[in-house]
């Protein structure tokens, strides 16, 4: 955690992009988890992901073309289907016998769910349906084909660890997220007491009531409650529910490399009238996330000197849980055993 670079966890699903970013017959190249990844959608509408390197001479396949069924390399015209298997080599002559099925650029399991493209990065070549690997979470109250109402993404020049610890930190808001419309005065700290319990691949702040005096919550109806969950490999899910409407916020942290990260924030809302307010909401989200982005860039100046960092009880306990979860996941993968959640139920208190 006190390093500039972080260990990247494999054997898990990561958010790569919005499904709406990939049109039928289109493809795009991304760097994710330190890998070159080509994401595309075939003419039938199915999402796929390939290793974005031609096995012939190493050029990225994204520089080539896609006809809705096969990707053709721009260098020598080799073609690969959406499973990554070679189907044609134009330079071969009639006397050559080549088993194309043995030539592959490599492929990643990919699924599209609730408007998001998830890609599985294996630990040792395993498939995600071979036992221990959990599926991407299905967000409550919204159908599998319902995408987010609003979405933003910002690149963070920091490791996934520092992005995660910054976003789950319960005490930085009064000092980092200061605007004329939010927490103007950092001296007015209030005591907080929250119950936590383990959940799949992480922990949850137990569902509790939200202040009825907040006008934003009144729009959801009566008895508005919230639950916040954190889970590997870098997910924050907040489910706010009232008697009339519900809102789900999702933050995803996807490593680009060991010290670069993509952070996405998005939410789903059952209120149909929110559409006209999307530009304003997106602006506020970018401002809020941009404040987190700015502070981790400033933090990097100190981390360059490899200082020994210190976490304190309660306020930084969730950061400790994050590191414990990462170690347990890595150990369980290496030892070929089931993951055992190290988080235990407890109450945390802090001032914020």
TrEMBL record:
GO terms for molecular function: 2 iron, 2 sulfur cluster binding; metal ion binding; oxidoreductase activity. It comes from the Bacteria. Transmembrane segments: none annotated. Pfam families: Rieske (PF00355), VanA_C (PF19112). InterPro entries: Cholesterol_7-desaturase, Rieske_2Fe-2S, Rieske_2Fe-2S_sf, VanA_C_cat. PANTHER family: 3-KETOSTEROID-9-ALPHA-MONOOXYGENASE, OXYGENASE COMPONENT, IRON-SULFUR DOMAIN CONTAINING PROTEIN. This is Rieske 2Fe-2S domain-containing protein.
